[in-house]
Request: fold
Amino acid sequence: MPELPEAETARRHLEAAVTGAKIRRVEVHIPRSARAHESPKELAALVEGKKIARVGRRGKAVLLFLDGKQPATLVIRLGMSGHLRIAKKGEPREKHLAGVLELAGGREIRYVDPRTFGQMVARVGHDPDTMPEFESYGPEPLSKEFTADYLKSVLGHRSVGLQVALMNQAIVAGIGKIYADEICFRAGIRPTRKVSTLTGPMRQRLVEATRGVLRQAIRLGGTTTGDESWPYGRFQDKLFVYQRAGEACRVCKTTIRRTAMPGGRGMHWCPGCQR
DNA sequence: AGTTGGACCTGACTGC
DNA sequence: TGCAGTCAGGTCCAAC
Reply:
């Protein structure tokens, strides 16, 4: 499921392959994937005929910065099964092909999204901070703004558990279930711990664990899980707790537990390593 | 305001 | 073998 490291891997892939390319035409095959727009035509009108000046990222979203008469940005939110690939025009269509960006020269960027939780949104301008998608977003976890002091200011008065807080995009952008579990493990803190009770050293460990886990995952191309929608990753071999309930902790041999979190979803953690 | 839970969606998996 | 039921989770929205 694409979180920050998977979005960053996709960003780097696209940056190398399509920077400078012109988008001739946009096709929307799953209308729901353009649901932020009145119609797919509105999306196409903002994108067609423009050049990909740069490929960026904000949280879990990939951003295509487009130059033309009216500069614009195509925001691609991958949802939980979204996947971007470069194809040659005429290659067989994927089963859940949601959208196609046809490039000058016979290639195309294909956006495939079986569960259709993701979407493509075109916005005017190049500044993510002006776009409704990112209005409430917190800092990038790999930026200088993400510090122990910042965490103190934003978590001090909250009663939610740590894993829920890490997945809140308004607190920090780009973290989902896999990395929230792994960050809590590496920081040595239980995912259920109420964030208002975190100590100063714990907040410092969280900042370091977040950076360490995300950087390593980016280096390894993200995480590939069972549903093969993300074929690039090697971080799955480095997981300590995510989807390892019932198995022995790789550090202390304690059995990894799965505990239901609000919403009925599970969090994975090691009773031996996490306090 | 912060928190919780349901809804959206499809493929993979489980159990009969 | 096949079919129904359950789970997975990013994000939004309604309700407490």
Residues 200-219 of chain A form the longest helix (20 residues). The mean pLDDT of chain A is 94. Residues 142 and 195 of chain A are 20 Å apart (CA to CA).
